[in-house]
Amino acid sequence: MNRQEGQSTSDRPVLEVMNLTMDFGGIRALDGFCLRLRQGEIAALIGPNGAGKTTFFNCLTGMYLPTRGELQLFRPDGATRRLNGLRPDKITEQGLARTFQNIRLFPRMTVLENVMIGRHCRTRAGVLGAILRGPAARREEKDTVRISSRILEKIGLAGQLNEFAGNLPYGAQRRLEIARALATEPLILLLDEPAAGMNPQETRELDELICRLRDEGLTILLIEHDMKLVMSLSDHIFVMDYGRKIAEGTPAEVRRNPEVIKAYLGEEESFGPA
Amino acid sequence: MARRTMRLNGRDIGSALLTALWFAFLALPFLAVKINPVEQTVTWRWHAIIYVALAAFLLSLGGSLYRQYRKAHLARKSQNDLSSEQSLFGRLWATRKIRLSLLAALTAAAITFPLLFSTYQTNIMITALIYVMLGLGLNIVVGVAGLLDLGYVAFYAVGAYSYALLNLHFGIGFWSALPISALLAAFFGVILGFPVLRLRGDYLAIVTLGFGEIIRLILENWNAFSKGPSGIANIPRPGFFGLDLTLEGAIIYLYYLMLGLVLFTVFVVNRLQNSRIGRAWFALREDEIACQAMGIDKTRTKLTAFALGATWAGMAGVIFAAKTTFVNPASFTFLESAIILCIVVLGGMGSIIGVVLAALLLILLPEYLRPLADYRMLAFGAVLVAMMVFRPQGLVSRVRRTYVPAGKNIPDE
Ligand SMILES: Nc1ncnc2c1ncn2[C@@H]1O[C@H](COP(=O)(O)OP(=O)(O)O)[C@@H](O)[C@H]1O
Ligand SMILES: [Mg+2]
């Protein structure tokens, strides 16, 4: 193991994916994919383009209805939740929050409003609350602003609260997506290529941020192409190709795995010194 | 950066010539040829065609110049700064003193209006206020939640007919009919909402358009229910504590009533927009998928938007029925939906002040253009086109809601 036992990583599973299959007409994008996440770990999902990584996220978060398979979430209170067939918003409510490979912010809403949207599933105020603005609704609204701006402080966007999200530079938009996901109070954070298009400085900051989130007890699963980032960050790596898991293990194990080397043939140098 | 001078090149002149030719050709049959059926002679009025061509040519050149100016202007502005796109009005509005005095003047004008102007003018103003209400309602659906609804008039019809029918069959008065009709319209909003939940953009527009027509056709053809094309007459005006009002009194009373209702609408819509639900609507307009991924129940959010948008149309319908004391299906054609949509687009999607201004402009302008007689609607169309060319984002862009988190003291401007 590349990290000491007894750190925040425990052996308690938080997510169990069994035999997940997703067909698009004739294309089998996921083929009996299995995955298990343990509480508080940073796991990475890697694989060549078109391997089915994003499709896996889409199945997991309810965007696609998988053809077959079992998705189970183990909540901290000991309860087990089956996620199959739940609507995306219900899955987010259960504690899975994601970011998108191609950024999907609300461009004409402010940075703060974007994060406040993340609070939606943790707040209650309805139509009457909005119109009458009673004490409960007002308190809730105040809390939403407070919690959201605190998350933005943590992410390093506190200076741009009232800026339109669409006006932020690229790296900041990626971080804002993370902030928005955090506002939903997730158990598991799913990041789809969070470092894509970032410069080295931004990537380093992202590395730090993800570590900090893990230290706060969050479980993180990220899809990433930047091997240096993956190798230094992950506790556990899943490698997939053609919708199947071809290997898994610690970064050191995965790097030695012949199957992985074969899948990445010609890209070996990208494994470089971690 | 090199200073760009504005110059017309050959292509602009060429396209202007082409435009001139095209207009001359179009105008030919009805401007140039004058047939006298009695003497059986044809007079050619070539000079008219020359005027048309000349006007088209100059207008087209002017258009090219304006486009160049605009491009240069936009380039000069820092590119990714949407925020500096604030209108003169927005900047004025931001100043507290000006805002207060403007509001005071507006209040005074609104209150004294029926005392200063004739019943005829007051009547027109009531119509304008009805459209303010309709615009604000549709603004929730189209401007805020981004659901293009071309059948909004259906809910207006539901409101008007429910008052008319409830009154006819059960003798229910204006004040009881108002909330009942609002609820009924909201219910219809949900009914329409369900089948179109999965539709977006053009598809949604077409289905809602169909829904609007269906309601109108039902009203037109189901004689036993709605009395068909002849409509329902003798709908009572709103009562005033059981007093019998003269016609003039009733109109003035209706005016104040409508004024109050519009204020109520503004208040409620404003609060809705700046709430958890309002934010969800805006987010839905921006990105439906991201919205769901953030834990927003798409179905529920859309249905609330449809229902809360329809509510105001329902109420406006009741007022309309009470004002004209007569309803028939001809009042609820697609044209109405189009006008209300125009109000929302012209005002600026999601902007309450914009919608209020646009409604007043769009309803009052044709009235006050009457001196132009035959050219009235032409001028009206020209104003609309010019508006969309010069301010495609609408009269007033939505004021960005800014927050100051507790414990921070960011100075107020
Ligand atoms: N909505 C869809 N319809 C049809 N095919 C899809 C769809 N989404 C993904 N696929 C296919 O599934 C495969 C995996 O895609 P994806 O999950 O995006 O790969 P990755 O994220 O690993 O690069 C690709 O062959 C892609 O064409
Ligand atoms: Mg992908």
Radius of gyration of chain A: 19 Å
Tell me about the biggest sheet of chain A? 6 strands, mixed
User: What strand order characterises the main sheet of chain A?
Assistant: 6-7-8-3-9-10
What is the share of helical residues of chain B?
Answer: 55-70%
* Rg of chain B, nearest Å: 25 Å
Which residue ranges of chain A are poorly predicted, with pLDDT under 50 across at least 5 consecutive positions? 1-8
Ligands and ions found: adenosine-5'-diphosphate, magnesium ion
Secondary structural class of chain A: alpha/beta
Total E-strand runs of chain B: 2
Q: Overview of this structure, please?
A:
- The complex is a heterodimer of chains A (274) and B (413).
- Chain A is 36% helix and 23% strand.
- Chain A is built from ten helices and ten strands.
- In chain A, helix 3 crosses helix 5 and helix 3 runs parallel beside helix 6 (170-182).
- The longest helix of chain A is centred in the middle third of the chain and has 21 residues, at 135-155.
- Chain A is globular, with a radius of gyration of 19 Å.
- The model of chain A is unreliable at 1-8 (pLDDT under 50).
- Chain B is an all-alpha fold and 413 residues long.
- Chain B has two domains: 10-77; 117-373, ABC transporter involved in vitamin B12 uptake, BtuC.
- Chain B contains 16 helices and two strands.
- Chain B has helices at 10-32, 46-76, 88-94, 96-116, 119-144, 153-170, 174-193, 201-221, 223-226, 247-273, 276-286, 288-293, 298-324, 334-347, 352-368, 376-390, and strands at residues 33-36, 41-44.
- Chain B has a two-stranded antiparallel ribbon.
- The longest helix of chain B has 31 residues, at 46-76.
- Residues 78-85 and 409-413 of chain B have low confidence and may be disordered.
- Bound molecules: adenosine-5'-diphosphate (ADP) and magnesium ion.
- Magnesium ion (MG) binds next to helix 1 of chain A.
